Amino acid sequence: MIKKYLLIVSLCFASQFYAQKNESKIPDSLKNVNFDYLFDRIETSDTDTAKQQLYLQTFLIKAISEKNSEEIINGYKNYVHYSHSVLKLVYADSMIFAAKRTKRNDLIGASYLSKGIEYYAQKKHTDALDNYLSADAYISKTNDQYLIHKVKYNIAQIKYYLGYYQEAISLFNECIAYFKENNTRGYLNSIHSLGLCYNHIGNYGLCTDTNEKGILEGERLTNKEMNAYFNHSEGINQYFKNNYTIAIENIGRSLPAIKSKKDFANEAVGYFYIGKSYWSLKKPEVALSYFKKVDFIFKDKGYIRPDLLENYRLMILYYQSKNNLKIQLHYINRLLKADSIVLHKFKYLSSRITKEYDRKKILLEKQKIENALNKKKYNDIIFISIIALLFLSLLLIAYLYIRNKRLYRQKFKELMMKGESEIAVEPKTNTNRISEINQDTVNALLKQLEKFENDKKFLEKDLTAAKLTAAFGSNPKYLSKVIFHSRGKKFTDYINDLKVDYLIQLLKEDKMMRKFSNTALGEEVGFSSTQRFTNAFFARAGMPPTYFIQELQKEHSYSISNL
């Protein structure tokens, strides 16, 4: 509802400005100045809001009165950068509205990109990605290398955020190569993000090298804006190297600059790793004060990400050691709230999170503690029950992990033992007669299906029963019955299985295909979304596509080592 309201306000705002060609609102002293002058005054008037608003308004009205499309878009972009956060997205919509009137791919794409960047700044990552993809659809039709790499950089940020570190590393390296000669801030930002990726994949040495390179390059380019972020990154990296005191010093040194930029996300991450460092130094009381700061930012800004969930686990452990059930319950509730947000935002990481936090067990633990507080007795029994439940949860997680690995491995072996024809062809049920359909019609449809499979027409994207029926010159009811009777499955499962079987054979034969992301693999065989592809692959193969590819790589490596 709020989004709908903001869109209406945005369109009304844009229409109003387009209709407004009244130059009388521009002070006489500014009527003859150029856009560069106005933009410079906008940037240098941060401390005087009234003056800045005057320059913002003058810039936009001047652009509209002169019918200067690029400067109209820049006028709205200025508002996106310098207006109140509540209105930023409204102005972003006006910018897109103005850009679309030009019908220029570069301007439309850049406008969507600016809106996506604003969503990312507000930590609305799903909306950010939607706008980045819209931007890419337009910018990819141009030869504007700056915009192309700017999109790559922001897509890489989303991939890093979702945990696709190898894909993000590849994109950040491309951005470093381009921005090095073309944009200093983009160059330093890309180096910083690359270092974060190296940390997350456990290459702490390369992370340190990258952070040091970033600081040296900043000095060479006389731009030290990113120094705080390189120190912040290195502080976290030192935590993973078990250098806790150095970690505390580095992160602590970086936080004033990060706080001055109102970067609450990196502020929270910094507090968390300072807290973890003190925890590792056996100073839980000091650690707790930093964990509480992370919780405050979550409460105030709603910011949380998967690794920060441990913040609450450690707080729960601390109060459990103090036998303080009330505060323990409070932080269990905070953990559950944070967990629900993470599960919603991080669809791709939800399986990893549930291995660390078994939601059902936490809820059961919560209920046990609530009962203990209400009855004021049986504390010892409940404490033992909690420990037992946690122990059983760990056992259950370990059992499920091992069982799934075994099942996946067995399924993989079965797939590898099958040849192409065995994978592609399903056991047929009785095809002699379908009582309510003329046998000649059945036979004709069966021949068409066989040709459809042989010609691999099932790779078409967005293929529906209606489209295939029209192509066969039949009707949906007959086609569905013949498919179910002859192939033993419903239409959707039939098409999905054909796509997956074809892809499995491709992955076996083509090593380059194994380097594709799930999104690229899904598109290769005509799936309309990554989620549909991964669901279909799991349903058919009994394992995720990433596991299948990993096992294929292992088989390939083993074969080479035995040559």
Automatic annotation (TrEMBL):
Protein's UniProt keywords contain rRNA-binding: no
Look up keyword Membrane and say if it applies.
yes
All copies of the HTH araC/xylS-type domain together span 443-551
Q: Which GO terms label this protein's molecular function in UniProt?
A: DNA-binding transcription factor activity; sequence-specific DNA binding
Output the InterPro entries linked to this UniProt entry.
HTH_AraC, TPR-like_helical_dom_sf, TPR_rpt
Q: Where are the transmembrane segments?
A: 381-402
Per its record, how is this protein called by name? Answer: AraC family transcriptional regulator
